[in-house]
Amino acid sequence: MHAYLVIGHESQELEREVSNLAKSLGESSFEFSITKINEVRELTKFLKLSFDKPTVILIRNIETATEEALNAFLKTLEEPQENVKFILTATSEHKLLPTVVSRCQIIRKGGQKLEVGSWNIKSFLTTSQGEKLAFIDSIRKREDAIDFLQNLTVLLHKELLEEKSDYGSKADLLASSQKALKRINLNGNVGLQLTNFIVNFPQK
């Protein structure tokens, strides 16, 4: 494997994992940003050099890259150079192009956050419809809505794997949360998408 995607929120544990991984993979390492297409071009130019020793390219917070930049970077991942390894970090693979994720070995550190503000997402599943609506009404920022739905999706997926009954209901809820997440990522109205999601939430 020539590319590793370390998933986790910024923490000392994440930094230790990245540092230890870089030391184990290469004798030298270089850090690049690929937020914009011109930065990808700079990286591509650098990679035209010949590397005699194992070398690591570290790219942090790759989810902040534009789609244009990710598509350009994908070509680099598809044609790996000998002696070059990539370490990418992100808070969630859901924010990345699936074609990028599929070319990486995923390492999860620190787990997914289950707290959104003062709410615990696991508790959220058992609250009343009115309480759910009151909670999502407090979510104004798109990034907060995405964070909430991503962590809810992770929890639902975990519970689905452990579910021995009511499997169909949990599967429908997971599909609904993923649909809402996709629409918000495509710049859908945050309040409208969250409200529709909660209105169709199965009652206990």
TrEMBL record:
This is DNA polymerase III subunit delta. The lineage of its organism: Bacteria, Candidatus Woeseibacteriota. GO terms for biological process: DNA-templated DNA replication. It comes from the Bacteria. Pfam families: DNA_pol3_delta2. Signal peptide: none annotated. It comes from Candidatus Woesebacteria bacterium RIFCSPLOWO2_01_FULL_39_14. InterPro entries: DNA_Rep/Repair_Clamp_Loader, P-loop_NTPase. Coiled coil: none annotated.
